[in-house]
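Q: Given only this backbone (240 positions), what sequence would you predict?
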């Protein structure tokens, strides 16, 4: 993909002639001033990147014809799932979602713990932010954003090669490079500002989650989560 390309999003690319959404159409025709015959690129967020040409530059319903499709089944050689306790300020979680998608992530679960400050999120808004970040970073895989999930339910129903919990009650914490290896399927728990409770930590440890340190500084929830995303990405880049 060329760095100056514009990437658009259409969830269903089964047909050769498809239509951009009203927002995408307006951006394409009015903001970018694209016209009939111009080439653009679209993704379905499921691994397909398609090249297409504009048939009808309607600013409310721009129709395009797909000329080529390329499918990539996996975002990267590794998978990353972050389960994060939502912060009281929704803007901070939205910031995390945007940046995590840009760097590379497969799943995000809002985690409801004893000390979680916010138990409801605007999932539709988070998904729009994720779509925008996917397009901006020229990716073809849209991460899954799950519903809010109680920590006990999450712990009992998740599996991964590397299961990691980040908390402030460390005894002998591991480094991320010790708990996560290149190409691992990894899930990481990030607690609220008030941290996980002793019971939550104990249950996580019983179910195979390893304690990992993200450094000596005390980090905000969203900063800790993004630090974890960056660390996993760097561990996997070193293998390439």
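A: Predicted residues:
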């Amino acid at each position: 993909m060329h760095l100056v390309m514009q990437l658009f999003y259409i969830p269903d690319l089964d047909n050769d002639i498809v239509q951009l959404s009203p927002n995408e159409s307006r951006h394409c025709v009015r903001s970018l001033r694209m016209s009939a015959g111009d080439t653009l690129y679209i993704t379905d967020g499921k691994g397909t990147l398609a090249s297409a040409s504009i048939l009808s530059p309607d600013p409310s319903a721009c129709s395009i014809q797909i000329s080529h499709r390329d499918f990539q089944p996996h975002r990267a050689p590794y998978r990353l799932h972050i389960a994060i306790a939502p912060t009281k300020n929704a803007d901070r979680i939205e910031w995390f979602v945007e940046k995590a998608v840009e760097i590379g992530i497969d799943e995000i679960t809002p985690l409801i713990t004893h000390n979680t400050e916010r138990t409801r999120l605007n999932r539709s808004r988070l998904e729009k932010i994720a779509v925008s970040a996917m397009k901006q970073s020229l990716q073809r895989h849209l991460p899954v954003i799950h519903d809010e999930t109680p920590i006990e339910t999450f712990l009992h129903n998740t599996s991964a090669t590397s299961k990691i919990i980040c908390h402030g009650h460390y005894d002998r914490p591991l480094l991320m490079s010790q708990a996560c290896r290149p190409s691992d399927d990894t899930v990481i728990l990030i607690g609220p500002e008030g941290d996980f409770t002793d019971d939550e930590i104990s249950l996580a440890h019983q179910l195979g989650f390893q304690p990992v340190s993200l450094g000596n500084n005390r980090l905000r929830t969203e900063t800790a989560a993004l630090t974890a995303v960056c660390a996993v990405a760097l561990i996997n880049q070193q293998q390439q």
